[in-house]
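Note to self: keep these together.
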Amino acid sequence: MRWLRFILLLLFIAVLQSSTVMNIFALTDRHIKPNMFLLLLVYFAINCDSYNAIITSFALGFAADLAGSVMGPHIISYGLTGVAVAYVRNIILMKKTGQQAAAIFAAGIFVELIAVLLTGFKASGLAKADGMEIFAVAVYSAILWFMLKWPLTAAGKWTGAGVFHFGARQAGR
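Structure:
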């Protein structure tokens, strides 16, 4: 991994996710927006080795906390979800776009359920997401994966994800 490039990508996505640019993509009066952090979480968990996938998952959670309103719940939920996806990837090969979209959907529900639960423990007034909103964000992000797979794959390759040195794959994969 090229960590400096990953940090630059992470900062760009954090600014994009918390800016008003994402309101262009908002659906309905509830402002349901896709979760760009979720797309990156699943991409890096699938395409990196387990060690780098876990580090990127916690870093994405930290950036999601910075872009959100409460510090703490997303770093835990993204970290746990990234670990789960990285280990499921060792059992199930997720190379097809539909399989990756299904992983984004499942990870989206899991991430937000844990984040809402932990936010409720920390500040109950801020845990306002209901089941329909969690479902809609997960579906929207999974559908958006079909359109954003190629630009995010190019950004991931730029950071060194899935690129194995000396032309050989690592022994653990």
